[in-house]
Amino acid sequence: MSHNAYITAEPIEGSDDGPLAGRTVAVKDNISTEGVPTTCGSTMLAEYVPPYDATVVRRLKEAGATIPGKTNMDEFGMGTTTETSAFGPVENPAAEGHVPGGSSGGSAAAVAAGEADLALGSDTGGSVRCPAAFCGVVGIKPTYGLVSRYGLVAYANSLEQIGPLAPTVEEAAELLEVIAGPDERDATTRDAREETGEADAYDYASAADGDVEGMEVGVPAELLEGADEGVTEQFWDAIDDLESRGASYHEVDLPSLEHAVEAYYVIAMSEASSNLARFDGVRYGLPASETDEGYEGDWNDTFARVREEGFGEEVKRRVLLGTYALSAGYQDKYYKKAQDARAWVKRDFDEALSEADVLASPTMPVPPFERGESLDDPLKMYLADANTTPVNLANLPAISVPAGETDEGLPVGLQLVGPAFGEKTVIRAGSALA
Amino acid sequence: MDGIETLSDGTGLAVAMSESAVDPEEVAHVADLARVDLADDELEAFAEQFADILAYFETLDEVPEVESEPDLTNVMRADEVEASLSKAEALENAPDAEDGFFKGPRVS
After folding, report:
1. In this structure, what DSSP letter does residue A7 have?
2. Integer Cα distance of A60 and A345 in angstroms
């Protein structure tokens, strides 16, 4: 546990047999586990013990997996470095002195360090793919609606999906097979068999055959602009590799992507300001009595004091900015324009994917930050999400696979984006590389 | 929440904040709406950061209006009683409860 990858290392045993029998699957600490603390990396939920399992946890147990513990994360999933956790930062096992990425940094670090065979993260704007890229492992962000969010503590529910992290694409696909599928407890889930018209729509592992012969890869120019040279070199090497295996590529322009990051942050913060209103110290959350013995304020005063104590700086920042963006007089300026941008991004992706099987970019435009580097400059941290956030806005599936290292030895990830419910396509393309 | 609360009713904030100069009093007002107390040094730091972040958000002005017709369907189930958490389980994580109810601070 040397990398601080786990918040709670309390094993949960699954059933005796099943496709994941004998394997360990670490679970991000914003995914509910019955009887085992689920803190979301926050002081607010330091003592919270869910009375029920998330659907994905139930499926892991039924599949025979052992959950070795709950992994460290940016508080409520809000961060790109896993430094905003109330339980301390996570060390990157693949790049000492650097952040593991976020917000599922503990999950990626656990897999990279061999502290778990596989892991689950959640991806609201890149929180599975970013740490996968920074720690040199594979991460999949599924199509919105493929995986149940029941029991996932909500940050921005129109954007997020639970997704697998693993050393290889095939193993990530095996874990996706276990967690994917409709759930009557999450009305936003869809049946991939109905969406694709394929009876074997969920057979993801067999799609990891590395066969990219004849595959057409689109490269959005906007996602290479502003990327570090060390990153783009590795990116083009990976494209060359795909070409040598029979794929071809062409560049595409997706002008809407220039506005994806700001649209993402306006929408995510707005949803967060509403979702996190439930942490009031009454139903759950930091007890008011512990923060302030004998304090006699009214509901609003007490609520505000509990939240001052229980939330960290980044969470406060996002709740406040979200409250601002939704307040009267500003909705049209920020929230409504962000929804326009979201629709535009979707349309651009749909057009580009009508002429390509997958779209490729660096997962992150930069190599892993040094620890502490982005803490005083939130905007710098937000801008690092330029390549991952558009995918969440468009509800599409994407995979991040390792694509070598910079000259300084820092991991680089390649992102492949597919059409809705086209998980097999991104898995097939990714498996040619990892 | 009691009634509709706005940032712009008579406070003059609509003008002040759109120019991306954010002062700590304005941050305090939003914090009040969001029910989050902030220390003075947090107000100062947030005011400075919000100016940068909001200026960046304002580039959304360049986004054209986009027609979107999302594929929405109602998801219904029969209105039948199903197993759910017991009252005791639902109250398990509440710091304070009485007679099977959550117990909160006084309302006013």
Report:
1. E
2. 34
Over residues A260-288, the mean pLDDT reads 92
Give how far Cα A176 sits from Cα of A10, A162, A192, A402, Å: 23, 9, 12, 18
Beta carbons of B90 and A51 less than 8 Å apart:
yes
* Residue A144 touches chain B, beta carbons under 8 Å: no
Contacts of residue A47 in chain B, CB cutoff 8 Å?
A: 93
Q: Name which of B11, B42, B53, B57 to mutate to probe chain A: the one with the most chain A Cβ atoms within 10 A of its Cβ.
A: B57
List all residues 6 or more positions away from A363 whose beta carbon is below 8 Å from its beta carbon. A126, A129, A130, A132, A133, A387, A388, A400, A412, A413, A414, A415
* pLDDT of res. B9: 39
Give the span between the Cα atoms of B41 and B35, in whole angstroms.
18
Residue A103 contacts by C-beta under 8 Å, 6 or more apart in sequence? A41, A73, A74, A77, A78, A79, A80, A82, A84, A121, A122, A124, A127, A131
Longest dimension (CA), chain B: 56
ipTM: 0.91
Query: CB atoms < 10 A from the CB of A375, how many?
Result: 18
What letter does residue A117 receive in the DSSP assignment? Answer: S
**B86-105: buried (b, 16+ CB within 10 Å) or exposed (e) per residue?**
eeeeebebbbebeeeeeebb
Question: What is the per-residue pLDDT for A295?
Answer: 64
At position A227, the amino acid (one-letter code) is A
DSSP B38-104: --HHHHHHHHHHHHHHHHHHGGGGGSPP---------------------HHHHHTT-S-EETTEE--
Tell me the DSSP string of A226-290: T--HHHHHHHHHHHHHHHHTT-EEEEE--GGGGGHHHHHHHHHHHHHHHHGGG-SSSSSSS-HHH
> Closest residue of A to B4, CA-based?
A328
pTM of the full structure = 0.94
pLDDT in tens, A59-112: 999 999 999 999 999 999 999 999 999 999 999 999 999 999 999 999 999 999
pLDDT of residue B29: 95
Question: Which positions of chain B have pLDDT values less than 50?
Answer: 1-19
A-chain residues near B73 (CB < 8 A): none
Query: Which residue has tokens 């009093």?
Result: B25
> A47 to chain B: nearest residue by CA?
B93
Q: What are the DSSP calls for A168-192, one per residue?
A: SHHHHHHHHHHHBS-BTTBTT---H
pLDDT (tens digit per residue) in A162-182 = 999 999 999 999 999 999 999
